[in-house]
Amino acid sequence: SQQGEEDPQALSIQEGENATMNCSYKTSINNLQWYRQNSGRGLVHLILIRSNEREKHSGRLRVTLDTSKKSSSLLITASRAADTASYFCATDDSGGFKTIFGAGTRLFVKA
Amino acid sequence: GAGVSQSPRYKVAKRGQDVALRCDPISGHVSLFWYQQALGQGPEFLTYFQNEAQLDKSGLPSDRFFAERPEGSVSTLKIQRTQQEDSAVYLCASSLMYSNQPQHFGDGTRLSIL
Q1: Residues B25, B4: contact at Cβ < 8 Å?
Q2: Which residues touch A8 (CB under 8 Å, ≥6 apart)?
Q3: Least CB–CB distance from A92: residue in B44, B100, B104
Q4: Do residues A109 and A84 lie in contact, with contact meaning Cβ atoms separated by under 8 Å?
Q5: DSSP label at A104?
Q6: If we measure between CA atoms, which residue out of B41, B43, B64, B45 comes closest to residue B54?
Q7: Which of A28, A58, A87, B87 is packed most tightly, with the most Cβ within 10 A?
Q8: What does R_g of chain B's alpha carbons equal in angstroms?
Q9: Which among A1, A26, A27, A43 is the top mutation candidate for probing chain B, defined by the most B β-carbons within 10 Å of its own β-carbon?
Q10: CA–CA separation, A4 and B42 (whole Å)
């Protein structure tokens, strides 16, 4: 498989708690993106962080990027039941056109 | 509708049959991607178009898979002589310009090969 790795594979938390997901990738990148996917639906873009950025915020989302470790994290603060979904990181194939997705973290937020 | 549209949503075919999956990207989007997603896994890249040009088809699993985008808008993914391992969700995505921009996904076609 050419996919990166995410951990944990699954995460179950209570509403109001924070959720942290991690992603590691293998090659140099131009940017890294996070997507969410509800069951039976397509992916929805959440946030894009460029290789020269270290942290980015969007609402309740905070993304960090460490290019020296080839890793990224997604933090969802004050989680809600509606955040229940699968979350994927995606990297570009630097110099190419391919987008490489991780295997995803399945987040379950209990009301 | 302003989103990416895929049809059919579900397709059941017998092993050996040919299938064609359609993708209508967001109007004006230059880039178009096809992915294959197995149950419980992330999307796996199949192919990429920039307008009508297929610039990367390195992810197509075999020569039974063929994709086209003849006028730079609608795209079709064709699978010939289907096999059971072709069963998966096939996702299409488009982005406004380049391949490293945010992608807008359709809801996919769930293909089942009996």
Answers
A1: yes
A2: A21, A105
A3: B100
A4: yes
A5: -
A6: B45
A7: A87
A8: 13
A9: A43
A10: 10
Sheet architecture: strand order including B75-79: B5-7, B19-24, B75-79, B65-68
Of A41, A44, A98, the CB nearest to B56: A98
HSE at residue A20, side-chain half, CA atoms within 13 A, is 4
pLDDT single digits (tens) A10-30: 999 999 999 999 999 988 888
Residue holding tokens 């807008």?
B104
Q: Locate the chain A residue with the closest alpha carbon to B6.
A: A42
Residue of A6, A24, A14, A29 whose CA lies nearest to A86: A6
CA A56/CA B73 separation, integer angstroms:
33
Which tens digits make up the pLDDT trace of B68-109?
Answer: 999 999 999 999 999 999 999 999 999 998 767 899 999 999
Three-state DSSP class for A53?
Answer: coil
Contact flag B107-A41 (C-beta cutoff 8 Å): yes
- Tens digits of per-residue pLDDT, B27-36? 999 999 999 9
What is the arithmetic mean of pLDDT over A72-80? 97
To the nearest whole Å, the CA of B80 is away from the closest chain A CA by 24
